[in-house]
């Protein structure tokens, strides 16, 4: 394996760089096995030899699947799509602010739209981050509705018209954001106290300053937090008391979902949430190459079959 050029910093450089399959392999090997010792994904042995002609490793221990490629044990496992396409798709999803649609991947990389959709779902799995610690300092919490008819309603109208669970065709997303810091979002079953407060206690440090709107489900947090409420019927900002960071994040999320993705089924929504929070939470410390590097380092140990993604039994097409 030889690497001719420097690692890419832009999408254009990534396309050129990863058109060389040795570069793809080298890039992945360095992130998967940072200390340079290749480990058999089946038995964990490091007694393996590289078969250069086939770009696979041979484990010296006798067991089924003793030959393995770089794809085995990662989100790429069992995929006939070549690594250059996978890595370009990853670069785009890790870095395009509003996301990228399966249609764009289909046209840009020359795979079917169905395949492109499946690739994106697997990449989103890699973008799913570990918990990342508690939020602290000044934290805003808010809920929003995704999908259904509420999508096109103005926020104020929506808040007035929709109460309780928000109706059958809408999915409720709950968000918490540390001002100037990270965001955590998730699908919740209702806007009731029992759905929201455990999440706050789980993800926000006790003693933090908490800002929310006047939804009654937030009552009772005063014991653990300095909780301040903005009454949106009166005004949207009262000094420090507002939920603007969270509102801005919802706009970003909805721009991605409504603009880039034609429709997102509630069942799949959490993957889009993971995708957007990956980009948002790594917006400051990392540049494009850094976000891509991080995404690649998270491909191991995650698999998603077509059946798991769709609930159907099907085979993904090769091209
Ligand atoms: Zn082995």
What brief labels describe this structure?
alpha/beta, 8 strands, binds zinc ion, five-stranded mixed beta sheet, disordered C terminus, 13% strand
User: What is the strand tally?
Assistant: 8
Query: The biggest beta sheet, please?
Result: 5 strands, mixed
Rounded to an integer in angstroms, the radius of gyration calculated over CA atoms is 22 Å
The amount of beta strand, in percent, is 5-15%
Low-confidence stretches: 160-166, 313-319
Explain this structure to me?
By secondary structure, the protein is of the alpha/beta class. Helix content is 37%, strand content 13%. The chain has eleven helices and eight strands. The protein has helices at 11-17, 21-32, 83-95, 102-109, 113-127, 155-161, 193-203, 244-260, 269-281, 288-297, 306-310, and strands at residues 48-51, 56-59, 67-68, 138-146, 171-178, 183-188, 209-213, 226-230. The strands form two sheets. It has a five-stranded mixed beta sheet with strand order 6-5-4-7-8, sandwiched between helices. β5 (171-178) and β6 (183-188) form a beta hairpin. α4 (102-109) crosses α5. The longest helix is centred in the last third of the chain and has 17 residues, at 244-260. The two termini are 27 Å apart. It binds zinc ion (ZN). Zinc ion (ZN) binds at residues 40, 42-43, 45, 59, 61, 63, 66.
